[in-house]
User: What shape does this take?
Amino acid sequence: MHRLLLIPLLALPFSSCMPGTYARDFAKETATYPKPATSPEGPWIGEWKSEVNGHQGPLWCLVHPTEEKPGHYDFRYRAGWGLVNFGDYVHTVATVPDAEGNLVLDANMELPAGFGTYSVQGKVTAENFKATYESKGDRGTMILKRP
Assistant: This one.
């Protein structure tokens, strides 16, 4: 099994996302975020691609400040591989907007069951979301745009 698939599947039990709510929440936020966007917050859509084996798939993300943790943002992802869309997961990242209002990403998340650490580096502006990821046995890119 592709190791990237394990990240969302293993993270699903730890997610604050209830099954079946992601599509509804994504549609609601897509209809209500300011156009043009004025901050990195809100909905994103794009894809992830492995540099190790060439696998790729769709990726959605909702970005919001973490209510209970000032100086942190929740990146609520939904990912797919081929025709399969699978679990939602939240990666809470310590970051604050820089002088231009962008979010700089440099964060790690420990995965359960000994699957190691998932890390992400990148930058999210009001109109661009570009990042790299690395996990045990895989690394690649995430490129998203506004829906």
User: Anything to note?
Assistant: The first strand starts at residue 42 and ends at 50. The longest helix spans residues 22-32. The mean pLDDT is 85. The chain is about 15% helix and 50% strand.
